[in-house]
């Protein structure tokens, strides 16, 4: 029996996917984020030559990761391999807007440097902006390594497939869940414990829109739960804490849980 078991294990080892380790990928991610946000990391670059050397080194590291990718799980076009570095300027611009949103949206924030160095929300959205680009180019497993690394560090779980607009503000953040097919507009602010999830976890629904759509200028307070692919929250809505929502909410609506009467109260915002 033991001999048969070992034989089966040997076959599995031979067929195991040739993937770079999670540690290698997350180390690259941390170095890349520190490169585009010097205030995030500890490495300081003093001249253009040093900057170019670091840029080239990161590119080489990324190519090495892709050359070792899990070939049985993903087959993206080779032309997309260098696309991450071509998109770095855009990713940085997106993140600068997120930093502005968190700084302006939190009275406790004393500086943008504080947001970059200490805020869980910045750490989570930075990982997402980079992982989402990688995910869109077909490197799904590598993107998941980065998103799950951020999840472990921050307690914020954002699937790399989720689409998030500009000026995204996460306040406090712990316990937030954003599902794969979620779409979030611009100037959205969410608090701790918010779930943007699915009403079904059936495997046959994997290719469908399972998670909600959030409009522009929406605030979602702590522990609100919004579920379903057909659920849309309109522009300029305020969703109160502890709300449970499975149907769409019209634009310019304030929705909150009325604890006295035990139901959701809906008011128009003028």
Automatic annotation (TrEMBL):
<dbReference type="InterPro" id="IPR053376">
    <property type="entry name" value="Serine_acetyltransferase"/>
</dbReference>
<dbReference type="Pfam" id="PF06426">
    <property type="entry name" value="SATase_N"/>
</dbReference>
<feature type="domain" description="Serine acetyltransferase N-terminal">
    <location>
        <begin position="80"/>
        <end position="126"/>
    </location>
</feature>
<keyword id="KW-0808">Transferase</keyword>
<protein>
    <recommendedName>
        <fullName>Serine acetyltransferase</fullName>
    </recommendedName>
</protein>
<dbReference type="InterPro" id="IPR011004">
    <property type="entry name" value="Trimer_LpxA-like_sf"/>
</dbReference>
<dbReference type="InterPro" id="IPR042122">
    <property type="entry name" value="Ser_AcTrfase_N_sf"/>
</dbReference>
<dbReference type="InterPro" id="IPR045304">
    <property type="entry name" value="LbH_SAT"/>
</dbReference>
<keyword id="KW-0012">Acyltransferase</keyword>
<keyword id="KW-0028">Amino-acid biosynthesis</keyword>
<dbReference type="InterPro" id="IPR010493">
    <property type="entry name" value="Ser_AcTrfase_N"/>
</dbReference>
């Amino acid at each position: 029996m033991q001999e048969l078991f070992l034989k089966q294990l040997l076959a599995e080892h031979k067929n195991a996917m040739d993937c770079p380790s999670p540690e290698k990928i997350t180390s690259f991610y941390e170095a890349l984020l520190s490169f585009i946000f010097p205030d995030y990391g500890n490495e300081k670059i003093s001249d253009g030559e040093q900057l170019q050397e670091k840029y080239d080194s990161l590119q080489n590291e990324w190519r090495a990761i892709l050359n070792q990718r899990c070939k049985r799980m993903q087959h993206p076009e080779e032309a997309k391999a260098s696309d991450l570095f071509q998109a770095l300027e855009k990713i940085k611009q997106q993140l600068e807007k997120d930093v502005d949103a968190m700084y302006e949206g939190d009275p406790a924030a004393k500086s943008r440097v504080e947001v970059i160095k200490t805020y869980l929300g910045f750490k989570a959205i930075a990982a997402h902006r980079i992982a989402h680009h990688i995910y869109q180019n077909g490197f799904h497993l590598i993107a998941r390594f980065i998103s799950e690394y951020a999840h472990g560090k921050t307690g914020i779980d954002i699937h790399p497939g989720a689409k998030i607009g500009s000026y995204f503000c996460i306040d406090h953040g712990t316990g937030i869940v954003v599902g794969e097919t979620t779409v979030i507009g611009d100037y959205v602010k969410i608090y701790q414990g918010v779930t943007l999830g699915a009403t079904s976890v059936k495997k046959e629904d994997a290719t469908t829109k399972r998670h909600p759509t959030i409009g522009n200028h929406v605030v979602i307070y702590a522990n609100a739960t919004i579920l379903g692919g057909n659920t849309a929250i309109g522009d300029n809505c305020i969703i109160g804490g502890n709300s449970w929502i499975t149907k769409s909410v019209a634009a310019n609506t304030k929705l909150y849980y009325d604890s006295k009467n035990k139901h959701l109260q809906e008011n128009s915002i003028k």
